[in-house]
Write a structure and sequence with these properties.
Blueprint: H1 4-22, E1 34-40, H2 53-67, E2 72-81, E3 84-94, E4 108-119, E5 125-132, H3 134-140
Parallel strand pairs: 1-5
Antiparallel strand pairs: 2-3, 3-4, 4-5
Length: 153
């Protein structure tokens, strides 16, 4: 049975992962919060398994940090039950490097996403499912037309 202290520990893990690893650009510290055998179920357009483990996490986030060095995640709220935690997160950044084959635009974006984390008995993340508003980000960066924009015939 999961205790309130376990739930609080899991919440602290995600706060620390976001603040100390992602927002600080310290991907080398991900092993403090992620299990080595962590499975990432989110579709990033990578081959199956490419986002798993510590190296997969560094691969995915490294690409974002290269394109958006000021990448910042802010937890809007979290809900936890048992060995799972859901977080609703706002993400901001400025596009100063190549991203998904697109050159930098210098534009800023702000979108939201939701992540679900599963924890092991040691309090490390062993599973991740996520959705991220990639379409909204690409439109804000000017890389895709916004709805209602006239298309050239």
């Amino acid at each position: 049975m999961t205790t309130q202290s376990t739930i609080e520990r899991n919440k602290a893990t995600i706060h620390n992962l976001i603040d100390q690893v992602i927002n600080s650009g310290r991907l080398d510290l991900c092993d403090l919060y992620l299990a080595a055998d962590r499975v990432d179920y989110q579709d990033y357009g990578l081959p199956p398994g490419a986002a798993n483990g510590h190296e997969g996490f560094k691969r995915v986030l490294g690409g974002f940090l290269e394109a958006f060095p000021d990448l910042h995640l802010e937890i809007e709220f979290m809900i936890a039950e048992g060995d799972r935690l859901i977080s609703h997160i706002s993400t901001t950044g400025t596009h100063t490097g190549p991203f998904m084959g697109m050159p930098a635009t210098g534009k800023k974006f702000k979108v939201h996403g939701t992540d679900i984390f599963r924890f092991n008995n040691e309090g490390k993340v062993v599973g991740h499912w996520g959705v991220f508003d990639t379409l909204g980000m690409m439109m804000q960066l000017g890389l895709l037309p916004s709805p209602g924009q006239a298309q050239a015939a």
